[in-house]
Design a protein that fits this description.
- Helix content is about 45%, strand content about 25%.
- By secondary structure, the chain is α+β, with helices and mostly antiparallel strands.
- It has 2 domains: about 90 residues, Helix Hairpins; about 150 residues, 2-Layer Sandwich (Heat Shock Protein 90).
- Strands 4-6-7-9-8 form a 5-stranded mixed beta sheet, covered by helices on one side. Strands 1-2 form a two-stranded antiparallel ribbon. Strands 3-5 form a two-stranded antiparallel sheet.
- Strand 6 and strand 7 form a beta hairpin.
Length: about 280
């Protein structure tokens, strides 16, 4: 039971009677207790699910390291044992294999770190976005040539973040623009940055603009859901995880990612990072 009341005074200020009400809050208390119990159970289940997912990502990424090590090992053996016999072009190809393998190893490390983000706070480092884009251009060189793509940047700063996560963020965004480029014209991707202010504070705004096939405006939120595909898997490769990972990485830094587009008229991805 729960009661509320007050005293009623006479003219001389002396209390003459009490007016009040008693409420039976048994059902309300039972409902609150049941709700609390269900929330606790769901929290435990969610924590268990997250722990299982992190463990899977950790094990899978750890297992992926071994074949990458083998690639680097045999690539180095070829250069060491037969380097003098190889034409310059072959040496160049082997160097590119080494560069790609090193980058893959770094990306696997990034997945390992990302799987542990909920458990620990890795120290931030200064990350030059120009270096990030340059590395991605190297790794996507073949696809860029195939799409006859031109990637331009302007006014990109350095930020306090984690190199591997920022690399994955921009790698997935640029790869997305390249995958969904028009077949009738060369791909154009422009990456710019600016500082803006609104009622919530100051932000670094980074935009990635392309001239690809775009998408319908009503799909601007669903594209960031896991395993979401807007186009046929037969025509456009992908797992449906790239943009979902981008969203998770932005949330890791208390930022946001949004997208706007029109069918056959390109897309614009906007990143906001608090300063």
């Amino acid at each position: 039971m729960k009661g509320y009341g007050r005293t009623v005074s006479e003219d001389k200020g002396k209390a003459s009677r009490i007016i009040g009400v008693m409420l039976d809050i048994t059902e309300q208390k039972q409902f609150t207790e049941e709700l609390s119990r269900q929330v606790s159970e769901r929290t435990v289940e969610l924590q268990r699910s997250n722990d299982d997912l992190r463990q899977f990502a950790h094990v899978a990424s750890h297992d992926l390291k071994e074949p990458v090590r083998k690639i680097r090992t045999f690539q180095n053996r070829i250069l060491e044992e037969f380097g003098d016999l190889l034409p310059p072009e072959v040496k160049l190809y082997l160097q590119r294999i080494e560069s790609a393998a090193v980058r893959m190893y770094t990306m696997i490390d990034g997945v390992l770190h990302y799987s542990k983000l909920g458990n620990e706070q890795d120290p931030l480092e200064t990350v030059d976005l120009n270096e990030i884009i340059a590395a991605i251009k190297t790794d996507l060189e073949i696809l860029i040539d195939t799409k006859k793509a031109l990637i331009t940047t302007s006014n990109l700063p350095s930020i306090e973040a984690h190199f591997t996560l920022v690399y994955q963020l921009f790698y997935n965004l640029i790869l997305n623009s390249l995958k969904f480029a028009k077949s009738t014209e060369p791909s154009r991707i422009e990456i710019t940055s600016d500082q803006i202010s609104n009622e919530n504070g100051n932000y670094l705004m980074i935009t990635i603009t392309d001239n690809g096939i775009g998408f319908r405006p009503e799909q601007s939120e669903s594209i960031f859901d896991t395993f979401t595909r807007l186009n046929s898997a037969d025509k456009y490769e992908g797992s449906g995880l790239g943009l979902a990972l981008c969203k998770k990485i932005m949330e890791r830094y208390k930022g946001t990612i949004t997208a706007t587009a029109e069918p056959n008229n390109g897309a614009v991805f906007t990143l906001l990072l608090p300063l």
